[in-house]
Amino acid sequence: MDQQGPISPSRGSSLRARLTVPTLAMCGMLMAVMQTVVVPLLPDLPRLTHSSAGAVSWMVTATLLAGAVLTPVLGRAGDMYGKRRVLTASLVLMTAGSVMCALSSDIAVLIAARALQGAAASVVPLSISILRDELPPERRGSAVAMMSSTVGIGAALGLPLAAMVVQYADWHTMFWMTSALGALGVAAVSWAVRESPVRRPGRFDVSGALGLAVGLVSLLLGVSQGGQWGWASPRVLGLFLVSVAVLALWWWHQLRTAQPLVDLRLVTRPRVGLSHVAALLTGFAFYANSLVTAQLVQAPKATGYGLGLSIVATGLCLLPGGVTMLLFSPLSARISASRGPRITLALGAAVIACGYALRIADSRDLWMVILGATVVSTGTTLAYSALPTLILRAVPADQTASANGVNVLMRTIGQATSSAAVAAVLVHHTSPVGGAPVPTLHGYLLAFAMAGAVALAACAAALTIPGDAKPEGTRRAGDGTRGARDGVMEGA
Prior knowledge:
The chain has helices spanning 11-36, 45-49, 53-81, 83-103, 107-117, 123-134, 137-168, 171-192, 206-229, 234-256, 264-267, 270-298, 311-339, 341-361, 366-394, 400-427, 441-463; strands at 430-433, 436-439.
């Protein structure tokens, strides 16, 4: 295990230590902003890039696929080679992708650039792992909760900001701004974040990484494009068959190799495996909120339920949810410290279901739409903040980044599945408005009911996770002030 010397008591070192958590939180929000800034552009990009709508959709799909593949791979690399080093590399790739978008209008270049930005999906699990290694137990819970909430906060802030830039400036300006923010993030991490001393040295499992990449790309490509290509089309069925075959072979390989990319024996333990199941279900339930809310409030008033809002106004409707996530992350940490993270996770999933019940009760009045969306965001804060804490308590310190990477991957799969499921529901419930098919209110309500049911399933999965051991925050402050540096499992 690599070790570094103790922190110098100098004023500069003390300032850097105090800025570690804010710096990592800023990087998490940057990652979320990078993922959402392209959304306001999607309706206009076919005209701006002289390409088809199908080609433009790959600017979202490429980021999703790259993020799904790279998150567990970079998590394992962080455990092996240094978490700050890999985190910095992820931010550099994200920034390089933004610069490419700022310099080009060619759709092929833009898609490749967005794939590069997918590397930023590993920022949150790597940052959480650094926090485990660097913070004392009494500070760790609140910091991890804040880090988990940055995804929702960044998304809520990024959408209205990007919409205003697109409305009042050239669309390349938006990517120049994100390039500058990315460069700031790289510089801040290099200055304020120490390299974690906890390592798991060994040989990187290249064949395992390639197998996981092929299996996940086949699965998520089939899920994301099924509605467009046809769920029973040879392409989609072929992708699913390839995914099943490759992932089955990958699983067999991971169980037999001495140094696997993903420790499946650890994954199959109930506390870890059920946490991953809950992450998948929570990702599904959470993502439907953003997808459906944005479409519903922008629907024409002629539908009888739509509000006809602009993309800027739509982003502002989602902004209260982001603010709520910022405010409720400390509460999540306190609940986890007193009751255990599985209770926090179950409570969060139940709150998400309540939010969707509000959406079903009234989706015509703007204030009720905002209230329902904010309640869902509140539940997401509780659930997402609890998930990494569950993982931290169930895995050795030198596998934290890879284990959290798998957990984020499960959220990504849940979000991709949610997108496909919501699209399928809305496509089958449309009515003509102004000569164009528009989803009916009944279709939206069905989507809310589906997401609420999945949230209740996530709550049930959380309650089946084996009970927590003594919460981390109740340990004496002197017990391991450098976090989990000794590499032993906590609460196993």
